[in-house]
Amino acid sequence: MHRKGEKERPSSAVLYRWIHGALARVLRDCGVECVMLDGDAPDGGRACFSSPVTSDLVFPGGEKLAGGGQRRVRGGVLHQGSIQNCLLPSGWDELLAARLAEKHSLCVDAELFPGMNACVEELLASKYRTEAWRSGVRHGRPSQSR
């Protein structure tokens, strides 16, 4: 049930296809061939990253490339994703952000709360756009390979 004036939120399945569809286009633009699955792996996805499920991205041979998980709360949706088994060029993340923003906005207001955009910009500048963050260096030491 929705409050008066609220838009109905897209289902999880719709959000997965939208996000992973945008990611698939960016990966292909970066030279990574992939396809989006229309159904679960034979084991139903019980083995997490080794077992793809509907809307996950896989290489043409079937090896899982990207997947995600969602946490839905009344005020929004958090989508956490992982891309493995490929190297991506610098700037792929900005391409993905642009793809996601092309046709859709999941937030009606420009800011969820006063000053939010300024906080986001400060966090981007001080952390996520730094060379240390982009190169995987955390807390003064290189990140470990997985």
How would you characterize this protein structure?
The chain has 146 residues and is of the alpha+beta class. The protein is built from four helices and six strands. The protein has helices at residues 12-29, 92-103, 116-128, 131-134; strands at 35-36, 57-58, 64-73, 76-83, 137-138, 141-142. The strands form two sheets. The chain has a four-stranded antiparallel beta sheet with strand order 1-2-3-4, covered by helices on one side. Strands 5-6 form a two-stranded antiparallel sheet. Strand 5 and strand 6 (141-142) form a beta hairpin. Helix 1 packs across helix 2. The radius of gyration is 17 Å and the shape is globular. The N and C termini lie far apart (43 Å). The model is unreliable at 1-5 (pLDDT under 50).
Features:
alpha+beta; disordered N terminus; 32% helix; two-stranded antiparallel sheet; single chain; 4 helices; 4-stranded antiparallel sheet
Kindly report how far apart the N and C termini lie: 43 Å
Q: Within the largest sheet, what's the order of strands?
A: 1-2-3-4
Average pLDDT taken over every residue? 78
Tell me what portion of residues adopts beta-strand conformation: 15-25%
Number of helices: 4
Q: What composes the largest sheet?
A: 4 strands, antiparallel
Dominant shape: globular
Structural class: alpha+beta
Number of strands: 6
Q: SSE string, helix = H, strand = E?
A: HEEEEHHHEE
Fold blueprint:
Layout: H1 12-29, E1 35-36, E2 57-58, E3 64-73, E4 76-83, H2 92-103, H3 116-128, H4 131-134, E5 137-138, E6 141-142
Short description:
The strands form 2 sheets. The protein has a 4-stranded antiparallel beta sheet with strand order 1-2-3-4, covered by helices on one side. Strands 5-6 form a two-stranded antiparallel sheet.
